[in-house]
């Protein structure tokens, strides 16, 4: 449980983490090597790899490129059961608890369970909560679920508590990739006030200030994908802001 333990250790110390999300569809092997170097220079804590649609078949190659070019743990964030690579360090085993699509709560897990087990990957059970990001995102469309309303902090809190009590080890609050509106600090704070599991927050975060404010509100791991694809200099800016977030909340 190396990666999960690192989540817990960092949370216990109040140290916030920054994860760069790489979509295998949008990166070439050479691009992955370049990103690995930039992430190392910026002291990025985790690399998340995945997307709602993974069309390319070079997932293994992408993981291997990242692994051979940096020491940052690579964590799979799969949009579908096919996105499993045994070369990664861990897999976020997502149950979409904000939705009511049984396939994404348990159905696809049953189908993929033997392959995931055989992969030997560290599996981190994750309560995945998709929050309305102001316009339909790929994840809300593909998952065929209604996202959690952006202003209903209490529903988010109850969903996260239920997920934790069901035994899910991590909560991931996601406004969806490229979301017009990222998750509010008030929703993050409401969830953080009632849940002791590490809280991952992503979707539509475009600058260091929002990343910092999310950490202050109670996020433990900040994930950024889209904004970094557009401007790689943000990797260091956001990493510095996350690492500068106050130790106690
Ligand atoms: C999406 O949380 C991630 O699932 C990251 O979102 O690409 O908008 O940064 P962005």
From TrEMBL:
One GO CC term, this protein: cytoplasm
UniProt entry tagged with the keyword Ribosomal protein: no
GO biological process, one term: glycerophospholipid biosynthetic process
Catalytic activity: sn-glycerol 1-phosphate + (2E,6E,10E)-geranylgeranyl diphosphate = sn-3-O-(geranylgeranyl)glycerol 1-phosphate + diphosphate
Enzyme class: transferase
Residues that, per the record, bind Mg(2+): 23, 52
Binding annotation for sn-glycerol 1-phosphate: 172-178, 203-204, 225-226
Source superkingdom: Bacteria
A molecular-function term among this protein's GO annotations: magnesium ion binding
Keywords: Lipid biosynthesis, Lipid metabolism, Magnesium, Metal-binding, Phospholipid biosynthesis, Phospholipid metabolism, Transferase
Cofactor requirement: Mg(2+)
Keyword Metal-binding: yes
EC number(s) recorded for this UniProt protein: 2.5.1.41
Classification via InterPro entries: GGGP/HepGP_synthase_I, GGGP/HepGP_synthase_sf, GGGP_HepGP_synthase, GGGP_synth
Role description: Prenyltransferase that catalyzes the transfer of the geranylgeranyl moiety of geranylgeranyl diphosphate (GGPP) to the C3 hydroxyl of sn-glycerol-1-phosphate (G1P).
Cited HAMAP family: GGGP_HepGP_synthase (MF_00112)
Family (UniProt): Belongs to the GGGP/HepGP synthase family. Group II subfamily.
Name used for this protein in its record: Geranylgeranylglyceryl phosphate synthase
Organism: Chitinophaga sancti
């Amino acid at each position: 449980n190396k990666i999960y333990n690192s989540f817990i250790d960092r949370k216990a110390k109040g140290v916030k983490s920054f994860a760069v999300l790489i979509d295998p569809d949008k990166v070439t092997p050479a691009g992955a090597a370049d990103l690995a170097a930039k992430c190392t220079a910026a002291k990025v804590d985790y690399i998340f790899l995945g997307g709602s649609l993974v069309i390319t078949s070079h997932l293994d190659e992408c993981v291997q490129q990242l692994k051979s070019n940096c020491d940052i743990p690579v964590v799979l964030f799969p949009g579908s059961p096919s996105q499993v690579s045994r070369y990664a360090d861990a897999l976020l085993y997502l149950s979409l608890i904000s939705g009511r699509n049984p396939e994404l709560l348990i159905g696809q897990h049953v189908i993929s369970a033997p392959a995931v087990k055989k992969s030997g990957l560290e599996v981190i059970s994750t309560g995945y909560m998709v929050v309305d990001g102001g316009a339909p995102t790929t994840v809300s469309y593909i998952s065929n679920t209604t996202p959690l309303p952006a202003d209903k902090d209490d529903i988010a809190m109850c969903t996260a508590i239920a997920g934790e009590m069901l035994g899910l080890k991590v909560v991931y609050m996601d406004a969806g990739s490229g979301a017009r509106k990222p998750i509010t600090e008030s929703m993050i704070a409401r969830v953080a006030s009632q849940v002791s599991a590490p809280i991952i927050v992503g979707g539509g975060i475009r600058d260091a200030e929002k990343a910092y404010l999310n950490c202050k509100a109670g996020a433990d791991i900040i994930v950024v994908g889209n904004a970094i694809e557009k401007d790689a200099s943000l990797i260091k800016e956001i990493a510095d802001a996350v690492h500068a977030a106050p130790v106690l909340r």
